[in-house]
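tokens incoming
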């Protein structure tokens, strides 16, 4: 039978492992600022598709969608405000810059990449919070603490 301490350590390690399998980031920016949404894939992979999406925008929630190195679709809200940091996507850099953010840009952004011969995978997730100047931001941090109960 597993002791409570061992069980707690196991759960903490499992949670850390699951959390680290996809890169997750939280960013807080002010209205009007530009923000970089990071996405780093493997170097030298044969990329055939890149999607930056906001799942809450449903079927046409593409922030940016590239297939065969050509832009395919984009939600009208992001038109003219999103561009790749490296248009050649060399070295697996799929990061984008979102310009002139506004309160409606608040949400979760996912970077999904498809490589030749495989299904698209989510590589990174960014939770973006856009605040107006003077607004306070509260950040919750989850900490796992192990206590010796002797």
């Amino acid at each position: 039978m597993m002791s409570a301490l061992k069980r707690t350590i196991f759960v903490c390690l499992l949670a850390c492992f699951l959390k680290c399998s996809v890169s997750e980031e939280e960013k807080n920016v002010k209205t009007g600022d530009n923000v970089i949404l990071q996405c780093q894939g493997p170097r030298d992979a044969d990329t055939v598709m890149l999607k930056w999406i906001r799942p809450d925008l449903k079927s046409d929630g593409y922030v940016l969608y590239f297939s065969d190195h050509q832009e395919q679709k984009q939600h009208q809200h992001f038109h003219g405000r999103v561009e790749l940091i490296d248009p050649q996507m060399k070295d697996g850099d799929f990061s984008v810059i979102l310009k002139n953010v506004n309160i409606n840009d608040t949400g979760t952004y996912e970077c999904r990449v498809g490589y030749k011969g495989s299904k698209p995978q989510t590589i990174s997730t960014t939770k973006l919070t856009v605040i107006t100047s003077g607004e306070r931001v509260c950040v919750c941090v989850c900490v796992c603490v192990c206590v010796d109960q002797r």
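note: The radius of gyration is 19 Å.
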